[in-house]
Amino acid sequence: MNKKEFLWMFAAVLFVVAFLTFRSFIGTDDNPYAHEIAAAFLGTLLTVIVTALLLRKQTISEESKEKNVKIYEAKLGIGFQGVDIVNYGAW
């Protein structure tokens, strides 16, 4: 199992455990405020997890993009040197 699959499994397990924990604490009371607070907390928890995963993916993508830009600039420099050699016949 790679790191990405582990993070998704961890997030799912954490969400289920949090749901079951809040459900057992709240019980079957007819108190709608307690249910709303628990729903808000679980929603916040899920939002934080998804946002963290998206930011991590975006960071990896940006690093790859920067690396590709540097490689392209190096290739472009070599190409310009080749054109200069052809045009001027010297280094």
Name the descriptors:
91 residues; mainly alpha; 2 helices; 89% helix; 0% strand
Question: What can you tell me about this protein's structure?
Answer:
The protein is an all-alpha fold. It has one domain. It contains two helices and no strands. It is rod-shaped. The two termini are 52 Å apart. The model has no long low-confidence stretch (mean pLDDT 81).
Number of strands: 0
Total helical segments: 2
In quaternary terms, these chains amount to: single chain
The main β sheet shows up as: none
What topology emerges from the helices and strands here?
Layout: H1 3-26, H2 32-88
Helix pairs in contact: 1-2
Give a brief description.
The protein is mostly helical and 91 residues long.
